[in-house]
Amino acid sequence: MTRQIVSVVGGKDAAGSDTYASVNPARLGDVVARVGMADADTFAAACRTARDAQREWAKVSAPVRGRVIASIGRLVEDNAESLAALVTEEIGKPYAEALGEVREIVDTCDFFLGEGRRLYGQTVPSEMPDKNLFTFRNPVGVATVITAGNFPVAVPSWYLVPALLCGNAVVWKPAEYAAASAHAMYRLFAASGLPDGVLNVVFADGPQTFAGLEQALTEGTVDKIGFTGSSEVGRKVGELAGRHLQSPCLELGGKNPMVIMPDADLDLAVEGALFSGFGTAGQRCTSLGTVIVHESVHEDFTARLVRALDAARVGDPREDVLAGPLLDQKFADRYEEYLTWIQPHHRVVSGPTGRITAGSPRAGFTGDDGLYYHPVVVDGVRPDDRLFLEETFGPIVGVTTFSTLSEAIELANRPGYGLSSSIYTTDAKHAFAFREGISAGMVSVNNSTSGAEAHLPFGGNGKSGNGSRQSGMWVLDQFTRWQSMNWDHSGRLQKAQMDVAEITPDPEFRL
Q1: Kind of pairing, strands 442-445 and 420-424?
Q2: Does this model's pTM top 0.90?
Q3: Which CATH superfamily does the domain covering 39-252+465-483 fall into?
Q4: Which one from 89, 90, 97, 251 is the annotated catalytic residue?
Q5: Is 299 a catalytic residue?
């Protein structure tokens, strides 16, 4: 049955003027939800509502807010299969991966429920007598969170859970093509007992969201922006935030390298490349972009990768498959453009390219009339190629070679992204030299470029982000502001750096 969903502001439905059809990309005839789309005024009104609700939510003690986070985790855990099935239905993510994504919400809640009792400040010694210094974490206020749909529930939880725990209110704008999954997640959060208006969900397109955000920033009802999406849009969000003297949390795209050293376990490296390059049909920000393989093992590695890819199952995401369809028609259209970047000097070693059809079949394919595409491996990619330099959001991986580790590191850094990276080696010196030289915020050794844990910082540098981090205790700095306090109980004015006791040494002393 097709769902009818709208934005929820202050605990009440906010009908939209336009309707968007969220379609199952694995079976294009199935409409998962019809979504009432909000305008800029609705977005700005949601921020005002959040502002009013936040004042009372911040008065709730942090340990009690932690218990609310614990309730969210248990509710998500008890509804894991239903939520994962909806994710699979709406965006075509293989069910096993969707279950893992839902588990990420639970892990995030499990980590942060204790942070309600650990929002520590410090007692700091003063340079003056009879004076005490303290630091406190205060909530920033209202956070607007704008997320992509390739991880429609896990990545939003990285923002929502710590933001709410720290005493903020949130206006969340999910991707419209994953609206049903987002709405279900909102309902689980609301069932935890969150007061109305503390969490609001607004479904809107990009232009209306941007206009509404600009209006809210002008009105002073937004204090923090969290954005997950493309580097192109991230720049615009960053520019808008900068005009209002705000520092957003930006988690953007990646062109993630995997370096294969001559001493690598090639079977393990192939397994990692297969999962990080083609799992979720290559539609992760951490998906493998280019394999940078040592010239001495290039032919062997490439042949093994192609054999593994040939044996991998592509098709119905409800089954045990490596990859399902692309997320949405707009991503399919964009992927078709990426395929035009294949040049005459390249060598497609994986077979057909483009959409899987009766006229262009794939062995073992189990899909229907969805947005399924052949996974592609392109050998002979050069450092000046678009395929090497730019993010390709989809099931396509480039391969190039190197002769020295320093050359490999230079190639890995060349595109200017800095999200995730990987090296396969059995030599610790290679691993640590790579870690030191790579610009990425995340480094894997003998593991894929994809994969995050709830208690480690997640984020990138360069085109991949502005250095902000999600997950773990590090994200607390995104959703709190430090406040310092000095308490002078001497009964007199003591002026810092002026009324400080001095102890004079004897600089002429010698043994």
Answers
A1: parallel
A2: yes
A3: Aldehyde Dehydrogenase; Chain A, domain 1 (3.40.605.10)
A4: 251
A5: no
